Amino acid sequence: MVGLEVDESGTGVAVLTIDRPHARNAISLDTMRELEEAIDAAAGARTLVITGAGDRAFVSGGDLKELSALRTEEDASAMAKRMRSVCDQLANFPAPVIAALNGHAFGGGAEVAVAADIRVAADDIKIAFNQVALEIMPAWGGAERLAALVGKGRALLLAGSGTALDAVEAERIGLVDRVLPRSSFDEGWRSIAKSLARYPATEIKRVISGVSPDEAIASFARLWVADAHWLAAEKVTNRTASPRPDGRGAT
């Protein structure tokens, strides 16, 4: 099942959790449908997090027990198109999307991870585009997204060989953005999610995704004239103008 948690404290953070412990959070056809529905239901969130239940697997890939029933090219194509569409939903979500890698991300799980804007990993996880072990290739958009992150040569090396990387090495090459100690992992990714749950982050994502210089400037100008900017500026001005504890002027 896929759970959707919306922070009731008003932070604007929504969390999607893939919870299939019997299958190491592998993705079935029903999971695809539930992900589609959950992402739609998260509309309006200022940060969206996708993670897995437990601490063993983020997503272990496709559910081979179920997907092995697909024996024609047409069926395989339809399945790939559907899950690629889910990954596109994540990638195109208006607000920042974080993949919180609570456990290993293998095969299709790595593809889900790279559909997010940011990957935060526990320090004991591994990530691998290891579809070649099944004599197949990434089909959910992961190969292209991997190449955009680490370069074409490195993407071919990783996905072509199925090499598994630990969290530190994945961070070193830019596949993972932040590695956190297992002991503080949940607290850490939630803190990052809250820090991004601000309207400017959504505008920054839009600009990074590719707009014209004029559109980027227009985004800035809208933020500049908004009440939130002037309230924040007033707070900063008051803070910098406040007397020092020793009475010697501004801090």
UniProtKB/TrEMBL annotation:
Alphabetic keyword roster: Fatty acid metabolism, Lipid metabolism
GO biological process: fatty acid beta-oxidation
Domain of life, source organism: Bacteria
SUPFAM superfamilies named in the record: ClpP/crotonase
Gene3D superfamilies: 2-enoyl-CoA Hydratase, Chain A, domain 1
Gene Ontology MF annotations: enoyl-CoA hydratase activity
Reaction(s) catalysed by this chain's protein: a 4-saturated-(3S)-3-hydroxyacyl-CoA = a (3E)-enoyl-CoA + H2O; a (3S)-3-hydroxyacyl-CoA = a (2E)-enoyl-CoA + H2O
Extent of the signal sequence: none
Pfam family, any one: ECH_1
PANTHER family: ENOYL-COA HYDRATASE, MITOCHONDRIAL (PTHR11941:SF54), ENOYL-COA HYDRATASE-RELATED (PTHR11941)
Family: Belongs to the enoyl-CoA hydratase/isomerase family.
Primary role: Could possibly oxidize fatty acids using specific components.
Record's protein name: Enoyl-CoA hydratase
Annotated organism of origin: Mycobacterium asiaticum
